[in-house]
Amino acid sequence: MKKVVTFILLLSFSALFSQSITGIVVDKNDEPLAGATVYFDGSSFGTSTNMDGKFKITLPSEISATLVVSFVGFDKVYLNKLSFDKPYKIILKESTEDLREVVLTDNKFSRKQMIALFRNQFLGTTRAGNQCKIENEDEIYFSYDNDRFVLTAYADKPLIIDNPYLGYKVYFDLTTFDAKFNQYSIERNDVYSSIYVGTSRFEEIDNSDRKLKNREKVFNGSFLQLFRNMANKEWSKDKFTLFNGKFQANSVEHLYIKDTLGVKQIFIKKQERGLHAKDFVAEFSLLYNRREQSKIIFHTDNFVIDRYGLFSNYDKIYFSGDLSEKKIGDMLPSNYGIE
Q1: What is the pLDDT of residues 254-281, one digit of tens each?
Q2: CATH class of the domain defined by 4-91
Q3: How do residues 81-127 score in pLDDT, each as one tens digit?
Q4: Which of 11, 74, 128, 220 has a CA that sits 20 to 30 A from residue 149's CA?
């Protein structure tokens, strides 16, 4: 189980000045751990500790992403609500968990079939997704629930994903992957929902003009663009257009935005119609550039968007349509385009 360590500190936000997070990583005996990986989840902001176990990450502005600290043989530490005005001392504990064993289930599906389905639902089938390659697929193992028609995937080590289309190498620490089928099947057409959860770190391996153009293409119509635009009330026909039912909506009538030191808090007006789930708040259709259609469904009446387009309450905001088809292959670091 992922251990989340939250420090209750004064949290301030600034979009005007660069910020640095500093600290030291040690073991339980207070010995420094050289070469530990420290990074902000979903971004290219990261580093490794030096010979003294110390690290420093400089950001253009504060970020609400989780800071992940990892070292081989030790439990990861996840830090939220960080303070940028004091150094951290992070103590890692040696892992007491054995590597999970492969669970053999009585089903008719081969590993080749399960890997193919995993690639489809994890990497995606867009131009970028199709070009991605998982360098250490042998680290992935599967189980299939014959009664519930659910394929589950696990990995004890971060998956190393080469994305030549965007010029990134992505290290994805997979904690959850479930693909649910509407019948006993392993075919992509029978998948009615899939989910993957984990932390990610980006390394830029190619920043040629061609890769930069590809990144711009992927950014247009992405989750990052949507939430950055939403925070800034930037709705237009050549970007995202918001619809309430069949009619184009005026966002200010449905989404109230409060600016708090550069972080935007979004309040959603509850709808009386639509879905009838217990915690349902509102549902809108989205049209990107007059052609890509999606839906966004809120099961929360408020959430926060930071300068990077990262948003809170992600487990209560659901998507369908074109946006839901964009997987790891189309994922950009959260700091893309922000320097």
Answers
A1: 999 999 877 899 999 999 865 556 789 9
A2: mainly beta
A3: 788 778 999 999 998 765 555 555 567 899 999 999 999 999 999 99
A4: 128
Residue 323 dihedral angles phi and psi, to the nearest 5°: -65, -35
CA angle 34–205–225, rounded 5-degree value: 105
What pLDDT score was predicted for residue 8? Answer: 27
List all residues 6 or more positions away from 310 whose beta carbon is below 8 Å from its beta carbon.
42, 63, 64, 65, 227, 334
Q: How far apart are CA 47 and CA 264, in angstroms?
A: 28
Are 311 and 334 within 8 A, CB to CB?
A: no
SS3 content of the chain, % helix, strand, coil (to 5): 15, 40, 45
Contacts of 168 (CB under 8 A, 6+ apart): 44, 202, 203, 204, 205, 333
> Which amino acid is it at 316?
K
Percent of the chain with pLDDT over 90: 70
92: Cα within 13 Å, side-chain hemisphere: 26
The answer to whether 22 and 55 have CB atoms below 8 angstroms apart is: yes
Question: Encoding tokens for residue 90?
Answer: 């992070």
Which H or E element spans position 111? helix 111-122
Q: Rounded distance, CA 25 to CA 282, Å? A: 44
Alpha carbons 58 and 22: distance in angstroms, whole number: 9
272, with CB counted inside 10 A (0-12, 13-18, 19+), is exposed
Residue 296 contacts residue 303 (beta carbons within 8 Å): no
Question: Residue 31 carries which side chain, given as an amino acid letter?
Answer: E
Residues 6+ apart with CB under 8 A from 54: 22, 23, 24, 32
How far apart CA 211 and CA 141 sit, in angstroms, is: 32
Instruction: Tell how strand 133-134 and strand 37-40 pair up.
Output: unpaired
